[in-house]
Amino acid sequence: MKHYLSKTFLIVVLTIFSLSATAAAKSFSLSHSGEFNTLLTLTPTERYLLLPVEDSAPEASVRVIIDGAQVATFTIRLAADNIDYVVPFDMQPYLGKQVIWDIHFPLYHFKIRPDRRKFVCWDFMVASDSYDRSNREAWRPAYHHSPQYGWMNDPNGMYYDALNGVWHLYYQFNPYGSRWGNMHWGHSTSTDLIHWTAQPVAIAPDALGTIFSGSCVIDKRGDAGFGKNALVAFYTGADQSQKQSMAYSVDGGMTFNTYSGNPVLCDTTPDFRDPKVIWNSKRGCWTMVLACQQEIRFYSSQDLKTWRYDSRFGEGYGNHSGVWECPDLFELKVEGTNQNKWVLLCNINPGGPFGGSATQYFVGDFDGTTFTCLDDKKEQKWLDYGKDHYATVSWHNAPEGRVVALGWMSNWQYANELPTKQFRSQNTIARDLSLYVDDKGEYRVAVRPSKETMAAKGAKTNTLSAASIVEIEMPAAKKNAVITLSNDRGEKVTMTYNFKKRTFTMDRTKSGKTAFSKQFAAATVVPLFKAKDTYRLTLFIDHCSVEAFDGEGAWAMTNLVFPNEPYNHISVTNGTCQIFEIK
Ligand code: FRU
Predict the structure, then answer these.
(1) Closest Cα to residue 499, out of 515, 478, 483, 475?
(2) pTM for the model
(3) Is 212 helix (H, G, I), strand (E, B) or coil?
(4) CA-closest residue to ligand 1 atom 12
């Protein structure tokens, strides 16, 4: 059988071998058992087992067994013919013990690839005390958060540690491949919202299921009994059913213990997930906001463990073309007034304005028990008017009472097909939210790059690069104004202000690689909610994304792009343009 090893993979293998002299030695024995199972037996002395993955291979499932008991289980696309990348399996807890991996290749796997004895993975699976942490992909963002390796979707449990000035970002993570599955809470930290440090996995699947999305709160008074200032995480444990569970951390969010009384909230609803817990100052209790099919439910608790149903919202309001997921609830000031209103974020998939996923929101009042919407029932409001902005939620305890939010920069229509391998998906930049009143008298959420992100703006330059910030000013005119980002291969992103129709459009149909999904090539459009004499626009460009922000926060638009070379030209008809490097 031929083994096709990519050039990158050979470099990786050579690096691994040179890093660890013992790595080349086979540290496990294999026995193929029956038609569908392979048993791998080892007594680890090194920290990691490096697993070769083929992104398009079918999934095998692994049960990790010690002394006859299952200690972990996960799925993985072990490389049959080609090795796309390597993922580390952490053997720290099993050092010195005899471990059996019972790898099951189900019938459909067997039908596609019957001869598992000849898979390339067996030759290149090695034990090592380190793994390759280098960043090898051309589309890896420079200043957006992305996982060091593997798959990422929703941001989870984000909280700001004010004492140490650290932003914690947890996220839906598959450590065993760059496609969705095996959901863990991955973890990264940052002091500036630009540079991120990868941290060990925060919460791993247990017998109650994989770890779906959720939130964290600092339990200042110790209501839950885990001590004052414990960090309490809420997530959905997902297997045959979805139920809410909790975990707590007494070391500032670096490690978590799952609560022995889990789950804390169950229901008969099949889609019952993504708990967002907030302090309810109106009633002096905790409130949990939960997505249940196409409605949002509100629960309350004194001790964070016992939850009582309060109310529900959703029937007849907004878009119902998909499942409501990842809710959030916060109070915002209406700019230029002394008024506050409440905003209920409710991510929806599908049903987004350009297909697939998007972040819908409702403006209203919350009396501590019930959310009352002030929007017209038919009105559909979106926090971002691009195709790649989903699962957006806000940071707990953000400084200066700000509401700082962040979204997953992808879309379920094609998230698993994106043309990166070592990692898949990144997050948007952090955004500060407030409220404004548009020209029709409607409340809308104003979205601006957080001031921490603006601090990344470096020196002025004449050339556009793969990671740049661009500021544009253009007077409203009769003719359309057009902004084009392009490269020498003729690939381009075209943005158009149509002053007559009062719209802004971003067209990525000729932006580079688009053929990986029929749903990717698209133009997205937003109404210019506030008329102005001069429009200001800020663009955040980073290897495979363009985020456009109206200068006054009236709207935002986020789209992925995969140019075969970075865009190195920008042209602006009828306006001025300044390009900044990233610091
Ligand atoms: C949203 C979502 C959540 C769920 C998670 C699973 O993208 O479907 O509702 O908790 O992803 O990874």
Answers:
(1) 478
(2) 0.95
(3) strand
(4) 212
Contact indicator for 157, 277 with CB cutoff of 8 Å: no
Q: Model confidence over 230-279: pLDDT tens digits?
A: 999 999 999 999 999 999 999 999 999 999 999 999 999 999 999 999 99
CA–CA distance from 443 to each of 361, 380, 432, 530, 554 (Å)? 11, 12, 16, 12, 11
Q: How far is the CA of 116 from the centre of ligand 1 (A)?
A: 33
Residue 491 contacts residue 513 (beta carbons within 8 Å): no
Q: Which of 67, 84, 102, 154 is the catalytic position?
A: 154
What is the rounded CA–CA span in Å between residue 359 and residue 190?
Answer: 25
The architecture CATH gives domain 3-128? Sandwich (2.60)
In this structure, the chain runs to a length of 583
Topology of the domain comprising 150-448? Tachylectin-2; Chain A (2.115.10)
Q: Is 367 a catalytic residue?
A: no
**Locus of tokens 């109404």:** 527
User: By alpha-carbon position, which residue is closest to atom 9 of ligand 1?
Assistant: 325
**Which residues have CB under 6 Å of ligand 1?**
153-154, 172, 183, 212-213, 236, 273-274, 325-326, 391
Q: How far apart are CA 192 and CA 50, in angstroms?
A: 32
Query: Superfamily assignment of 456-582 in CATH?
Result: Exo-inulinase; domain 1 (2.60.120.560)
Measured in Å, residue 211 CA sits from the centre of ligand 1 at 10
Which atom of ligand 1 is found nearest the CA of 214? 10
Distances (CA, A) of 328 to 32, 180, 392: 49, 23, 8
Q: What is the pLDDT of residues 521-541, one digit of tens each?
A: 999 999 999 999 999 999 999
CATH 2.115.10.20 domain locations along the chain: 150-448
From 171, 172, 425, give the residue whose CB has the most ligand 1 atoms within 8 Å, as the site to mutate: 172
Phi-psi region of 549 (alpha: psi -120 to 50; beta: other; left: phi over 0): beta
Cα separation, 346 vs 220, whole angstroms? 27
Comparing CA positions, the residue from 342, 341, 377, 346 lying closest to residue 361 is 346
Residue 2: CB partners within 8 Å, gap ≥ 6?
Answer: 81
Which ligand 1 atom sits closest to the C-alpha of 183? 12
**DSSP category for residue 557:** E
Domain with CATH 2.60.120.560 in the chain: 456-582
Coil/strand/helix, residue 171: strand
**170, 235, 244, 325, best to mutate for ligand 1 pocket (most atoms within 8 Å of CB):** 325
pLDDT lower than 70: segments of the chain: 1-26
Confidence (pLDDT) at 26? 65
Query: Which of 75, 151, 153 most suits a substitution to test ligand 1, by most atoms within 8 Å of the C-beta?
Result: 153
For residue 154, which atom of ligand 1 is closest to its CA?
7
Contact (Cβ atoms closer than 8 angstroms) between residue 160 and residue 394:
no
Residue 337 to residues 111, 133, 342, 361, 403, Cα–Cα distance (Å):
66, 50, 15, 21, 17
